[in-house]
Design brief:
The protein is α+β, with helices and mostly antiparallel strands and about 190 residues long. It has helices spanning about 1-20, 25-35, 50-55; strands at about 55-65, 70-80, 85-100, 100-115, 120-135, 140-160, 160-170, 185-190. Strand 3 and strand 4 (about 100-115) form a beta hairpin. The protein is elongated, with a radius of gyration of 29 Å.
Amino acid sequence: MFARIYFLIIIFITLNANNVFAQYYDPEKAKQVAEQPKKEQPKPPMEENNVWDKLYFGGNIGLQFGTITAIQISPLVGYKITERFSLGGIFTYIYAKQRFIPGYSVYGLAPFARFMITEDFFATGEVSFLNTAQFRSGYEERIWTTLPMLGGGYLVRFGNRGGMMVTVLYNFNNRNPNSIYGPFVIRTGFFF
């Protein structure tokens, strides 16, 4: 009984498959389609001279708890020189508090360069110039610290312009006692 039903189903599918895959060729219609004027392709965004299309914004917000408690806000702005290479700056403000030391602020600027290796992975380098506090003999002294960093990251895109990025950097000046970062700096942020 089941063999007959399977046989009828296979015959039904086989007979109807021709109708599903059959095509009709009309030479007159093909000629009309070939004679239609071709539409111009839109230019890629980087070929336009619109500065706003080449700018992107974003940043990081960080929280750290433990021996040092810190709150960080780091907005960034970048400019696409080419589709794969961009330059920009990161503005950093950190409020930190350590045990037995009053709360203090760290602020500065980090110019960066970013090269897109693939659509999602990038290589980046930056030099952070940070003004930080040192406490000596009961008073606060402000000093500038230079932190060259190199690394890479991954982008997760949300639409045409926005997304999330994860960046891992190596701090070449991590042995400096004034460095607020260890050897590796991991950041998560957004861009649009």
